[in-house]
Queue: 3 jobs
Job 1
Amino acid sequence: MTQTGNPDKRWLDPDVAPFIEFRGVSKTYEGIPAVRDVNLSIYQGELFCLLGGSGSGKTTLLRMLAGFEAPSSGTVWIDGVDVTEIPPYERPVNMMFQSYALFPHMTVFDNIAYGLKRDGIAKPEIQTRVDELLLLLRLKDFGRRKPDQLSGGQRQRVALARALAKRPKVLLLDEPLGALDKNLREDTQLELIKIQESLGITFIVVTHDQEEAMTLATRIGVMDEGYLVQTDEPHTIYEYPSSKYVADFIGDINLFECVVTEDAGSASSLYCAEIDATLEPPTGMSAPINQVLWYAIRPEKMRLSREPVTAGNVLSGVVHEIAYLGDFSVYWIDLDTGFRIRVSRPNISRMDHFAESWDERVYVTWDPDAGVVLTQ
């Protein structure tokens, strides 16, 4: 199947066919649903992330794509072919596991070459492919070493090289960076992006790490209790979550339960009893009077001041706690109703002598369009 169109955002082009499709896929174990009626299209060359908490169904969905699990209902398609009944070893897919599963008695070279030897590839071709991967993954000087002579990041790259050696159309990665420390994980994320872009292979990554998904992905599919609850680009997922679950799961957020009211000018407003405040909704919000919904606002979109402010949405409270995190500080503010909100502020100057302090009365303000209204 020929793929055409914008290589960066093929999912926006209606003339481009999906490369991978889950069509109404469900999976149950002894009557307990693990994946529920998932319809998902992934396009060639994407670095797609499945994101969700433990038990959300993301790994089960990945294993059905690999062929290690069979759907209870629905079909799985790769490059225009229904692969639902095709065994794993005949699918154009390879999988890299979290544990890396390297053979300890083999050298780096032999670990990478293992699958090629099993497939009966000629020795000169094996040598060429392994040498290319050693160079690509910056392992050229480590070919003769054993896995226990490597760092965690180097073992991760060996596992990736082995998974790429058979030149799969799709590479599946299940929590690939979970065993690495924070700094190494961040560096490896950037390396993974460069490798994927240079090879043009479709990568599908399963992770529970929101930052990892936001860094890696062209698009993210958020899963909850077996449902695929939102699929979008990282920016859209963060700025315009489709539900309370997505808003709360991706990053930090303040959520207020509100009811739609009408002010003197017959324009809609939101009354939030838990903070005892009437909020101006985002531009263009349309909802019937008395509908219950939730107003969501990210901590970094709010501002702190010591003086009352009249423009925009305004709340007042007392500073309960301050966390200095280096590049930014987080303030927990107790409102007069007892409801606690979170506000973050970048630390632009080294010494902020005007920063608010514990137990100080402050005002929290933000522009109405900085928030988002959620109905589910």
Note: The CA atoms of residues 271 and 278 lie 4 Å apart.
Job 2
Amino acid sequence: MAITKTRRPRSIADILTQFLLPLVGLGLMGFAGWYVMETRPVVRTPLPPIEPARSPYGETVAASGIVEAQTENISVGSATPGVVVEVLVRVGDEVQAGTPLFRLDDRQLQGELAVQRAIISQMKSELVRLEAEPRKEKIPVRQADVNEARAAVIRETDALRRAEDMWVKKVIPEQELIERREALAGAQAKLESAQANLKLLEAGSWEYDRDVARAAVTRAEADMAKIQVDIDRLVVRSLVEGRVLQVNVRPGEFVGTPPGQPLVILGNIDTLHVRVDVDEYDIARFDSTRSAWAVPRGSLQEKYPLEFVRVEPFVMPKKSLTGNNTERVDTRVLQVIYRFDPTGRPPLFVGQQVEVFIEARGK
């Protein structure tokens, strides 16, 4: 029996399956390739936003430096704790040696000073009294005591004479005669005492008593001077001529000894210094007689010629280290001080970092 094949008519689904699906697959493959190309990491080497500083010398010691005042940055604190009642300067003010910077509360010391002045006044009055002795009004009183004692002696002498006559006549007992003699002796002792008191009064005060009184006055004046010094110390003054670079204290704040941070920072910035950190590996190539330049960060077109001042001959840990005793210090620097005149150039400020290039010693 023969089998006959029948052909099914082609539908739209057959046409889509045969032609559209391969086209969609090719499109997805193309999209995948494009996505991979667009999202792949690209390594670029962009130019720096600011061109780094370049050394003008063939052999160079490169170092970093920081601008500081000619007198170095002077951190002013308070020698005594207290509450600030008045700040007398502002940032940028020019100060001279002795210019008040700020003042602490001194009311307690002012009270102690008033008490001490009263004590000194009392002691001086006592000294004047001793030096004015004898008081002329007291002499007649003492003289009257002497006269009274002399009259008593005369009276007792007469009474004793009568008692002796009567005792001879056996009129009175011997006991009464003894009592009269004792009374005369007592009257004579009182006369001597009154005469001695009169002489003591006429002689005036004892020289040593006056010396003791003078010493007491001197000590009291010294105590008052100490209080005045303590009051004066509550007004913190500048010890150098310069400019106020920073003020970190306000009225009403309590300051201790030492404070947690400098209260006022001063410095003379007519001529600025640059503190340069030379790495210990470059110390052998450093020569203080060679020329040097400073270039501010962010302003490479400006170059400041430097003049050597001194070397601080102590190789110390780099300032960027914390300084903990558990820290491994592997970077040490030699600090070199240069000066430059900022006049006629763009200003550099204290604390600003600069790049320093020093002509190295030839090999």
Note: The chain has a mean pLDDT of 84.
Job 3
Amino acid sequence: MFGEGKKLLRAAQLQVRGHLRVPGADEDEAEPEDEVSKALAVWGLQAADPEDVTVEEEFYLWPECVPTFQLWNVVQTQWREDVSGRRTGLDYAGLKACMDMQQIPDDERAALFWGVRVMERAALKEWYPR
């Protein structure tokens, strides 16, 4: 499990930056800049200038990271915010509820929780660098 941390951390960084595209089986290939703009829009962001957007090289998740990444995407509605609207972390009760609704077996939950926490810390660090 420990080797997966770097892949999950990188996936969260790329997703927060709007540089991660997850192609679907029926999805047409769009221009990378369009995909970046769409990804930024998901987070309520917009690039200052389309030419400022850089698309990184291809990034692949290891198969064992995919369940954590899928759960990460499900819990994106579970962010806690302070009074200024700054995200402070995920609501872990909401994370547990998501795992319950997806009927994730008890013996898989600890590893998934650890992976989501790695991604949570990476996202917060990207949004609010010190």
Note: Residues 4-127 form one domain.
